[in-house]
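Design a sequence for this backbone.
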């Protein structure tokens, strides 16, 4: 039998719903993203991507470093009231982690455009600095700074930009084994790290009392990955991401490139987080 080699999948970035187009323009300008145009969807392509039978969608494509950051606005689709996103242990929680070369300078630049989740940038016991916030649309985001001996080598190149790219998208989950089976076995990603984060700095980062989080990070053939946040304390809180519809501001899709995926398919993970799989 011929030896068949299958190219590994790769996470390219994340797409977020944006009910009010233009509301994130000041933040995107501060981040220094590259505008890569837009795509319009209707009919079968709209249904395949978002499960909607009517209306249309405009996807505005941006790039930060090597990763994609897409924002989706819908036309002729009924809007839904914006909901309180809840705490960081809500099971529909999802953020993108942006790596920076100078945490204090990056946080200062974004502060006028965001609402902090964290009290302030936190330097964790392992030396990594992190700061979580929500943008004007309610999407959770995080800034990350890695010391020289941690993180992917691409974050330690000479003369880096202030905002370098996406390290991962973090999602709150209810069961680590179930999520590892889905992303590792079903989607073909590989486990890269596993940690248990706790202590006063983690609590300040998440704005949660006595936070204790089991974390697993997976990725494919590209450095950008998906990170599981399994809250041991306080425990995970409903609802899951399955409750979100495409026109909801908190709706998101992880963008997964998988050779052989054809025209694309939409999948849900065990907690309802969406993955758009395309070739």
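Sequence:
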């Amino acid at each position: 039998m011929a030896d068949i080699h299958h190219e590994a999948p790769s996470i390219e970035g994340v797409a977020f719903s944006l009910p009010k187009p233009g509301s994130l323009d000041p933040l995107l300008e501060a981040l220094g993203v590259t505008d890569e145009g837009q795509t319009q969807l209707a009919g079968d392509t709209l249904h395949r991507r978002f499960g909607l039978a009517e209306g249309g969608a405009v996807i505005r494509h941006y790039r930060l470093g090597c990763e994609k950051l897409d924002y989706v606005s819908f036309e002729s689709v009924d809007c839904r009231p914006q909901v309180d996103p809840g705490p960081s242990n809500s099971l529909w929680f999802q953020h993108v982690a942006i790596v920076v070369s100078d945490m204090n300078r990056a946080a200062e630049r974004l502060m006028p455009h965001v609402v902090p989740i964290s009290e302030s940038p936190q330097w964790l016991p392992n030396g990594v600095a992190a700061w979580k916030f929500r943008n004007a649309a309610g999407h959770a985001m995080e800034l990350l700074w890695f010391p020289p001996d941690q993180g992917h080598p691409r974050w330690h190149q000479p003369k880096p930009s202030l905002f370098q790219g996406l390290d991962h998208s973090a999602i709150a989950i209810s069961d680590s084994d179930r999520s590892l089976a889905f992303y590792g076995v079903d989607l073909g990603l590989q486990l890269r790290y596993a940690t248990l984060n706790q202590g006063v700095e983690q609590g300040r980062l998440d704005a949660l009392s006595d936070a204790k989080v089991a974390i697993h990070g997976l990725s494919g053939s590209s450095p950008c990955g998906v990170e599981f946040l399994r809250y041991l304390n306080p425990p995970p809180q409903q609802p899951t991401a399955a409750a979100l519809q495409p026109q909801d501001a908190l709706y998101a899709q992880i963008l997964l490139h998988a050779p052989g995926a054809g025209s694309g398919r939409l999948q849900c993970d065990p907690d309802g987080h969406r993955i758009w799989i395309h070739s």
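The first helix runs from residue 25 to 31.
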